[in-house]
Design brief:
This protein is of the alpha+beta class and 332 residues long. The protein has ten helices and eight strands. The strands form two sheets. Strands 1-2-4-3 form a four-stranded antiparallel sheet, with helices on both faces. The chain has a four-stranded antiparallel sheet with strand order 5-6-8-7, with helices on both faces. β3 and β4 form a beta hairpin. α2 crosses α3. The longest helix is centred in the first third of the chain and has 20 residues. The radius of gyration is 19 Å and the shape is globular.
């Protein structure tokens, strides 16, 4: 089949825009900022960065682009649910910095059973800040998550060696102490954390963070979203709770804008796959907001590329997810 015939057979995405963008917007994002916007142009949906939602502690926009890359993967998965292969073009116009990708429907292809499981898991996938359930994560699942990352141009490096885990924990703890003294980081948390009962459709709701930083065996230091306000409603991990089943670092070969978008796509694919088995992940972005700490993690753990995300996985049978902005608010 010629490319012209394939394009003619593929649907114009504007007829499915609300569904496609709604699925894309289920992606994870730093502080649940949802820093993306979309433009629908017949057969194409364009993804844009929303710089108004960039964190001050993210001057280069690395975390913003990782978040937008996750939305891009969600959009691709949604196109697959229509029975077509998505065709995505990254950074299509160097003169338009905010335009990150163009997506259209390519050749027709039946949805696979595995892809259907991913789609069903997206609504209950969420960043996990509470205690994990007892139990292990099967080695086969971890291997599958590593395959997911590779398929998206990244590497998910599992940190199983106790010595390397101790080095990572020490660096994350040091970064947490530095963040606690950083006024800009504190202001960002105050801006994006929500009080109980808040009607906001973005940010981190009180039900998604604990009232105080809690410690648990093997758990890396987590960002304190409560800041002593006693807003948090989530029971935190305790000293007698089960440890995470696995710790991993997501890395990319390079460290440019395209790499950040690929990291985001890999992140969402990994998290959605884990959620099919009711395995969740806590995401540790704060330590990576310090270039020196980020580089030390790469060097001391002998990682094969630029560090983009630190994750800890464990069973968590919870359907809670953070609120999302309505589709009309996301349209250009």
């Amino acid at each position: 089949m010629s490319e012209e015939t394939t394009r003619a057979a593929a649907p114009a995405l504007d007829g499915h825009a609300d569904y496609l963008i709604g699925m894309a917007a289920r992606a994870p994002s730093v502080h649940n900022t949802q820093p993306w916007r979309f433009r629908v142009a017949g057969p194409v949906i364009e993804l844009y960065a929303d710089p108004r939602r960039k964190l001050r502690v993210d001057p280069a926009g690395r975390e913003l682009l990782i978040s937008c890359g996750a939305a891009l993967y969600g959009l691709r998965l949604a196109v697959r649910s229509l029975g077509y292969l998505p065709v995505a073009e990254l950074l299509p116009d160097p003169g338009r910095v905010r335009l990150l990708a163009r997506v259209r429907a390519g050749a027709a292809a039946p949805l696979t059973g595995w892809e259907r499981q991913l789609l069903e898991a997206v609504p209950h996938r969420h960043t996990h800040r509470g205690a994990f359930d007892p139990g292990e994560v099967p080695a086969s699942l971890l291997a599958g998550l590593q395959h997911d990352a590779l398929a998206e141009g990244a590497t998910l490096a599992l940190i199983g060696n106790p010595g390397k885990h101790a080095k990572l924990a020490a660096l994350v703890a040091e970064a947490s102490r530095m963040q606690a003294l950083n006024p800009a980081a504190r202001e960002e948390i105050l801006r994006w954390s929500r009080a109980p009962g808040s009607p906001a459709r973005d940010g981190v709701p009180a039900a998604a963070f604990a009232p105080a930083g809690a410690a648990a065996p093997g758990r890396l230091a987590q960002r304190d979203f409560d800041l002593g306000r006693h807003f948090g409603l989530l029971p935190g991990p305790g000293p007698d709770g089960p440890p995470p089943a696995a710790t991993a670092v997501l890395v990319t070969p390079g460290d440019g804008r395209a790499d950040w978008l690929r990291a985001g796509q890999a992140l969402h694919r990994v998290l959605a796959h884990a959620a099919t088995a009711w395995v969740s992940a806590s995401l540790h972005t704060g330590p990576l907001e310090f270039p020196a700490i980020r580089d030390l993690i790469r060097v001391r753990l002998a990682l094969p590329g630029a560090v983009q995300m630190v994750l800890q996985f464990g069973p968590a049978h919870s359907g809670m997810s953070s609120p999302r902005r309505p589709v009309p608010d996301l349209l250009i």
